[in-house]
């Protein structure tokens, strides 16, 4: 049975999973679940992922959520090239380190700004809430980018090594979404160079980012 993928193309973790599938020609069927339409919280979608979050997959009846977990599962179940999630235990631990770091650092900051600048006005958050989210988001992003910039001063890839890993894909998808929230990595030259590198090495980068790129372009009009 073909693998079922539940995503919204605007979502960072969704695009990371989609890129891994597309770059490796893994057959899959996309089911779009609109975040803005509230479809992640529908009873039908919660049958697929009870947490009400995307991405999610169903692989021959096996249901799985959480983008990092899905990516690791795909690496193992589809025997993907070793560089994505290395079998060397120490290199693998480095990839896991950055995937874990992502949740409470880069993504934490990015989500604060997205909530403040996108969801705040739509969902009528108070000005105080928006200001607090912005302040925290700015601070967390600044320290996250400084930390990444330092790591990338001695390596072309976030987890070290000399090839792309799933940590690069997950983090790069987060960084490339930041213009939606009015932020960017342009003050961090190593992060910027790394983002350019990842965007050329991931073959499906532009295809997977097309909806988000259109959204960003429409915001500038
Ligand atoms: N840690 C999760 C985060 C998933 C997540 O936050 N997904 C968002 C889209 S980017 C979502 O489903 N939001 C819908 C909602 O909360 O209703 C992962 O990496 O998969």
From TrEMBL:
Give the GST C-terminal domain ranges: 88-221
Cytoplasm among the record's keywords?
yes
Q: Does the keyword Cytoplasm apply?
A: yes
Domain GST N-terminal, residue spans: 1-82
> Where is the protein found, in the record's own terms?
Cytoplasm
Primary residence: cytoplasm
**Which is a Pfam family this sequence falls into?**
GST_N_2
Which Gene Ontology BP annotations are present?
Answer: glutathione metabolic process
Q: Which UniProt keywords apply?
A: Cytoplasm
Which terms in the Gene Ontology molecular function aspect does this entry carry?
Answer: glutathione transferase activity
Tell me which InterPro entries the record gives: Glutathione-S-Trfase_C-like, Glutathione-S-Trfase_C_sf, Glutathione_S-Trfase, Glutathione_S-Trfase_N, GST_C, GST_Theta, Thioredoxin-like_sf
Naming one, the record's GO cellular component terms include: cytoplasm
Q: What is this protein called?
A: Glutathione S-transferase
Q: What is the lineage of its organism?
A: Eukaryota, Metazoa, Spiralia, Gnathifera, Rotifera
